[in-house]
Amino acid sequence: MDPCVVYLAYKYIIKKRRKRRWSVHPINSARNLRGTYYTLHKELRRDNDKFFNYYRMSIASFDELCEKLKNTFNKDRELIQGFAFEAEEMLSMTLRYLGSGCTYTELHYSYRLGVTTASLPIPRVCVALWRTLQEECFPVPTEQRWRQIAQDFAERTNFPNCIGSIDGKHCRIIAPAHSGSLNYNYKNFFSIVLLAIADSNCCFIYIDVGSYGKESDSMVFRQCSLFRKLEEDTLHIPKPEKVAETTLPYVLVGDEAFGLTNNLMRPYPAKNLTEKRRNFNYRLSRARGKVECSFGILTNKWRILHRPMNVMEEVAVSIIKACCILHNFVRVRDGIRFEDTLT
């Protein structure tokens, strides 16, 4: 093509391009007067119930978390490089995004920021939450801790020597570019897999996030770090003990999707069950239900997991990890409320 024609066409397009009318839109310029953080946030702090409903945690938990984040930001300045936000405002935006399942556009209007500006703090705060709370919320269990978990399962579900309930959850995402069918799962949507182990209190003991949606729970389990540690026997799991005249190992419990191993128990196949096997399956199902309850509480509190996440895959992984760590953080401090169990 003639270079002159290309040049003239380019000049015409540039000329016709709409000029920016404002350096800051008038709506956004009123941020300090009418933005959510400067108005509603301060009003909510006067009512703990409303605050909990809006941010999914109590005022005391919010303030504690904010202080922890400030310490993390002070240690790692790269997380807030180029930001003029207060840590409290960044946390406010992130909790609202995770808790309500709203979009960046909705944050843009309510917090009176540009769409791009509103989207920037979320991934960084999610990364900071994981760095800040990982050791506290996901400590490596000691032998004594494994025994306590097993005792709680025995009391609540009548299943002995159970050290956790394991299952996978498909978290919806918009298909990443050029990913083909890697993230397309058997439920006919695109996802990444959250593999989790929960205790009888519906807190997560371990999570693995980021496997392709097409992979089965058993495959994800065999690829995760926990499986390798189980194989190497480096998790301080107690040795098998006698229960009612039978020596039983300490085990995780899962559904039929998982293979039977020395440390993972699955139900008997449904066909031709004897009464003893049916009773065993019933007890195992009660214990296994704890991780399903955990997923239910997680998704009903952090409703970003109710919809497909329209973000890059690595950001989606950070969001899921942040939701899981917030689940444990709030569960320990504020317990569970009835509305958390509602869909």
From TrEMBL:
Positions of the DDE Tnp4 domain: 166-328
InterPro entries reported for this sequence: HARBI1-like, HARBI1_dom
Needed co-factor(s): a divalent metal cation
Main location: nucleus
Superkingdom assignment: Eukaryota
GO cellular component terms, semicolon-separated: nucleus
Subcellular location: Nucleus
Molecular function GO terms recorded: hydrolase activity; metal ion binding; nuclease activity
Keywords: Hydrolase, Metal-binding, Nuclease, Nucleus
Family as reported in the entry's similarity comment: Belongs to the HARBI1 family.
Full protein name: DDE Tnp4 domain-containing protein
The organism of origin for this protein: Acanthoscelides obtectus (Bean weevil)
